[in-house]
Amino acid sequence: MARFIFITGGVVSSLGKGLMAASLAALLQARGFKVRIRKFDPYLNVDPGTMSPYQHGEVYVTDDGAETDLDLGHYERFTGVSARQSDNVTSGRIYQQIIARERRGDYLGATVQVIPHVTDAIKQFALADTEGHDFILCEIGGTVGDIESLPFIEAIRQLRNELGRENTAVVHVTLVPYITAAGELKTKPTQHSVRELTSLGVQPDLLLCRCEHPLPATERAKIALFCNVRPEAVIQALDAPSIYAVPLQYHGEGLDGEVLRHFGLEAPAPDIARWVDILDRYNNPEGQVTIGVVGKYVGLPDAYKSLNEALVHGGLANRVKVAVRWIDAEVFEQDDAAIAAELEPMHGILVPGGFGERGSEGKIASVRFAREREVPFFGICLGMQMACIEGARNTAGFPEASSTEFGPTDNPVVGIITEWMSKEGLQQRSAEGDLGGTMRLGAYEAVLSGNSHVSSIYDGATRIVERHRHRYEVNACYREPLERGGLVFSGMSPDGLLPEIVERPDHPWFVGVQFHPELKSKPFDPHPLFAGFIAAALNKSRLV
Ligand code: GLN
Predict the structure, then answer these.
(1) Ligand 1 pocket, 472 CB below 6 A?
(2) pLDDT tens, 54-79?
């Protein structure tokens, strides 16, 4: 049976519980255990799919087409284990299921209540789909004390009784702030937050204390005494210079060893070679490239979390540092001088995924700049759509070309799709349907043309599988004129109907993809498209 590790947060939000869970999972994995990580989100949205990136950061899409919390991206990047729909649940989804059951009459006349109905549903979610795993790590979103998270904490309390203390652990992540005026670290917030948790019936086994200054033994002992844990179970978690330094740092502080001690398990020391190599590449770059990302949500780095990480991975693959310049597409709309001033210093230009018309003209202008100036260009999802519109307008003779996402157009080079094939058979949507969960989502195959640039990027592969999240598609009816203008359709859906990849063979590196390769990139396995893009940018930097 799998053992369960619950990860809660106290004092403040943004303590990096997700990274902590991912790092602990990576360390347990490095000791030979099979791990899975899942996230409980207490908010009432059914999933984050309809939430603004400004509210919630990126929406992370899984192979099985779930729109999930961005922490699942950390989990995948740190463990290589593909996340699934069953790894993320929200209060909204749980209530949706319960209310649907209640309407069907499944509760046989019973009064439906938070305890036991909601807590039972949470426990079922925690226990489902765990076969063959040694550890299931469950991160609880939010901060202990939030009204929304109460049912989740109660479910943990019940699960600990049902599964036994020896099969469960609670790791509580807290903050130990440093008060500059007093020159002291303060343990009181941690004490209060543990008191809050224990008042709900959950005694933490380990405390992971985030701090900006080292935690002296005296303070550790004090926290241990007041919070009823062993001093060795009070783990110092100093701010790390890079997220990829976190697993090694926590191992050095004894986190994984203490977790195993709690469970009474023996295991070989972790094989940390992978993390040592990543950190070596990260800390000792042999050069630097600057990439301009022309997007819409540039004010909030979390909105492009996986993209940012995938660019870092592309740098690791080439042993260079990648400096990312986030450029608001709206800034240089219609103004060629502004575009040149912003983009001339760039060694590569990337137009990422996005929604809506705002900024689209600036994105199209940056595609044009990259094409004409032979700057490596990478278009992702909306970025590929913009590359096709730019090609249609400026190289294929359709000056009015646009996307129906931006309003009616006579030349819908990008249009809504209402039917497509998936593994589950024919999928159908109406253009007026709900916005939630109605896109082409998750893993789909693409067939690559034999002698294309992308096929060489993918090491000669002719069939690939990548993750999608979009409602609109490039219209294959425009293939011929676009190809005459130099934009070649080098990847298509297996039925030959949906363009998946476009490229310009007469350009040093110009690739647009309808999918999101950034979601599958890992520090120890950089995505070939990002490795290739950064390599091309490196070439460009040597020419300048
Ligand atoms: N807005 C576009 C669509 O829905 C692109 C989406 C995206 O970039 N993820 O098709």
Answers:
(1) yes
(2) 777 899 999 999 999 999 999 999 99
